[in-house]
UniProtKB/TrEMBL annotation:
Its cofactor is Fe(2+). Belongs to the fatty acid desaturase type 1 family. Pfam families: Cyt-b5, FA_desaturase. This is Acyl-CoA desaturase.
Length: 466
């Protein structure tokens, strides 16, 4: 990379996976991709040694037990209801705990609530908090690149489960989790992870239905294993479905999307475009009617004194993103329409030439533009005779109220019939009548604005911040 100073290059290469993006490095991701080698592609011969057997077991044994169990075990309504509640509890362990509390630090939680969520998260069997949050922070930082562990550009199934099944070809990009290394609850969960998952994922959901209504087998099948499959794939949908279905309401630079269906599948993590723009916000859904039970849970916890410092991005900044996307869509509409010629691409005609040509062609002047109305004479709603009367003449006053005060639509249509501009006749800046209503407000790119001389000012040493 030519833009890197030699001294920086040495340090960057030596510490490539650990360093933070640096002003001297043009693009950190492409630099890491250039300077670190991926593992060789998986081949038929290497397949067995490249499979992540723990992940394969976690992702295949529970579905197998669930399917066999569901065929052979009667579902009691009490157990069904409990399984759904336990799904919400362990799901919130991931969404309110792993994700919004530990990965993003979007609020503070009391010690009690932290343990409550760490146990719940263990019941979802998705790895310990630190490992999960480290991957997730890399996902946010390197979204849609090869340093993103669940890179959505690798396809729906890769981002859903594929990334776990084979050993990754590259390490996820660097992400700082030093705060979590020091965290008492995170360390406790890490140290006791295996007993915690056995207790939270299997023992508790089996024993509660057994003790309360004598349904040990139902608890084991439905509240432990069927529930586990649902809660796991619910989380996986945040990496797959939320990067695939819906619209980019705040920014379309990357794949995250907003969709109510994803929100329903993921306890409210479906407003993922918003989330990638404002990851420190404790909300995913910003409207009260959007489905975000994780947000409601955090808010209620705050009311109960269990959570505090809920982070919310300033509404003013949130709305800027929304406006940008709305303007982009409007610009697309604007560019899809046909607009009239303006005085830069029309021939300038003298008054005498206009009068002369009007003898053989139905030409009318309005607001300094010469219009050929041949195709319109018979269709004029006010009658052909009004047009014929003004051929070879200036009908500006008549058009704008002298005879009839025409509608905006009529003015827009008139402008499409421009064929020339009268010499000295158009005064764009002073005369609104020269600009059709549909063009008085328009979406312009920054570079198209007349005031975009900021760059040249900077070149001359002016306009720089002090
Ligand atoms: Zn994402
Ligand atoms: Zn996130």
């Amino acid at each position: 990379m030519s833009s890197i100073a030699p001294r920086q290059t040495r340090s960057v290469v030596a510490d490539a996976p650990k360093i933070l993006p640096d002003a001297g490095v043009e693009n950190y991701v492409s630099h890491v991709l250039k300077t670190t080698k991926p593992l060789p592609p998986v081949t038929f011969d290497t397949l067995l040694s490249e499979i992540n057997w723990i992940a394969v077991a976690v992702l295949t044994i529970p579905p197998a037990i669930s399917i066999f169990g569901a065929y052979t075990t009667k579902l009691r309504w009490e157990t069904g209801l409990f399984a759904v509640l336990y799904y919400f509890y362990t799901g919130l362990g991931i969404t309110a705990g792993y994700h919004r509390l530990w990965a993003h630090r979007s609020y503070n939680a009391s010690k009690f609530m932290q343990y409550f969520l760490a146990i719940a998260g263990a019941g979802a069997v998705q790895g310990p908090i630190k490992w999960w949050a480290r991957g997730h922070r890399a996902h946010h930082r390197y979204t849609d690149t090869e340093l993103d562990p669940y890179n959505a550009h690798e396809g729906f199934w890769y981002s859903h489960v594929g990334w776990m099944l084979l050993k990754p070809r590259r390490k996820p990009g660097s992400a700082d989790v030093s705060d979590l290394s020091k965290d008492e609850v995170v360390r406790w969960q890490h140290k006791n992870y295996l007993p915690l998952i056995i207790i939270a994922a299997v023992v508790v959901p089996s024993v509660i239905p057994w003790l309360l209504w004598g349904d040990l087998r139902g608890g084991y099948v439905y509240a432990a294993f069927v529930r586990l499959c649902f809660v796991q794939h619910s989380t996986f949908c945040v990496n797959s479905l939320a990067h695939w279905l819906g619209e980019a309401s705040f920014d379309d630079k990357h794949t995250p999307k907003d969709h109510v269906v994803t929100a329903l599948c993921t306890l409210g993590e479906g407003y993922h475009n918003f989330h990638h723009q404002f990851p420190m916000d404790y909300r995913n859904a910003i409207k009260w009617y959007q489905y975000d039970p994780t947000k409601w849970f955090i808010w209620v916890s705050q009311q109960l004194g269990l959570a505090s410092h809920l982070k919310v991005f300033p509404d003013n900044e949130v709305r800027k993103g929304q406006l940008t996307m709305q303007l982009k869509r409007l610009r697309e509409t604007q560019e899809s329409l046909v607009w009239p010629s303006d005085n830069n691409d029309l021939p300038v005609i003298s008054w005498d030439a206009f009068v002369e040509q009007s003898a053989t062609r139905p030409l009318i002047i309005i607001s300094g533009f010469i219009h050929d109305v041949a195709a319109f004479v018979e269709e004029h709603p006010g009658g052909a005779h009004w047009i014929v009367r003004y051929i070879g003449k200036d009908a500006t006053t008549a058009f704008f109220g002298g005879v009839y005060d025409h509608s905006n639509a009529a003015h827009n249509l008139l402008a499409m019939k421009r064929v020339g501009v009268l010499h000295g006749g158009v005064r764009l800046a002073v005369d609104d009548k020269a600009i059709p209503p549909a063009q008085r407000l328009k979406i312009a790119r920054y570079a198209e604005l007349s005031g975009s001389s900021a760059y040249s000012d900077q070149d001359e040493g002016e306009g720089l911040m002090g």
